[in-house]
Structures are given as C-alpha cells and as structure tokens.
Design brief:
Layout lengths: L1 E7 L7 H20 L6 E9 L14 E3 L13 E3 L2 H5 L11 E9 L7 H16 L3 E5 L4
Antiparallel strand pairs: 1-5, 1-6, 2-5, 3-4
C-alpha cells in the first residue's frame, strides 16, 4: 500500500534537507507509536520538487526584452530591443502562474501485513488534521492497491 501527503509550503526556514530528515524520523516514530508496530513494517520517503530555483520564482531570473518604438531608436542604431523592467511585467502576469514553487511529498509505504491496518489510514488522517492546524497546505491521496 502506498499513501502520500503532498506538502505545498514555502514556510520552511533554514536547511530544508535537515528539516525534512528530522520530519521524516519524527513521523516514523509517531506512526510506529500510534500503530504499536515495528518501524520495519513501513517506510517514509520525503521528496522535494522545485522548478530549479528552490523556493524562488524561476521567472525572476528570466530577462524580457521588447522592441524599441520608432521614436526611441536612433538612426543607424542596430540595437532595436530594450530590456523590460520586471516591475512592468508584474501587471501582465498570467493567473496560471503558480504562487508556490516548491512541493514536498511525504510518502508512506506499508511493508507489513498483506493489507495495511485501518488504523494506518486513521493515523494518516490525524496527521493531515495536524498539518491543517499548523497552516500547511497539503493534499493527501491514496492510490488503489
């Protein structure tokens, strides 16, 4: 069985790898304690996805240019383009532009009995509630077995 939590957050401060490692260990201890099972019965994987710029908007690194108007182009000049200030681009942003540029998946893999105990799903639901209370944006999904 595979259950995953997707954390969409930009609120993590500090060394993200260290925070995620600590979170992974803490979550494993919490689930093992709640289910009264061995830590060997399941695995937790934490994976971070970004657009290549960490938490920052990768579009901030892109330089935009526009064609100079005929008035601004001096006669004989080969430079027909001018740089566009990023502040001018803010008003032209698409509504489809994401506001969060980092996703963190927390995946739980059950290796124990043939079928995972119902307590496991309840425990994951409790984790979801705790995350909502801590204002972490998330999505939880459980693919069919």
């Amino acid at each position: 069985m595979h259950i995953a939590i997707l954390l969409k957050t930009v609120s993590l401060k500090g060394d993200v790898d260290e925070i995620l490692k600590t979170y992974q260990v803490g979550l494993k201890n919490y689930i093992a304690g709640k289910l009264k099972t061995s830590k060997e019965d399941f695995e937790i994987e934490v994976v971070e996805f970004t657009y290549g710029s960490g938490r920052k908007n990768p579009m901030e690194k892109v330089k935009f240019h526009k064609k100079k108007s005929q008035q601004n182009t001096s006669h004989g000049s080969t430079d027909q383009y001018e740089s566009v200030d990023s502040k001018d681009m803010d008003e032209k942003k698409s509504d489809m532009m994401p506001t969060i540029f980092e996703q963190i998946y927390v995946r739980l893999y059950w290796k124990g009995q043939e079928k995972a105990p119902e307590e496991l799903e309840n425990t994951f639901l409790n984790i979801k509630v705790m995350m909502i209370e801590n204002k972490m944006r998330l999505a939880v999904y459980s693919p069919t077995q």
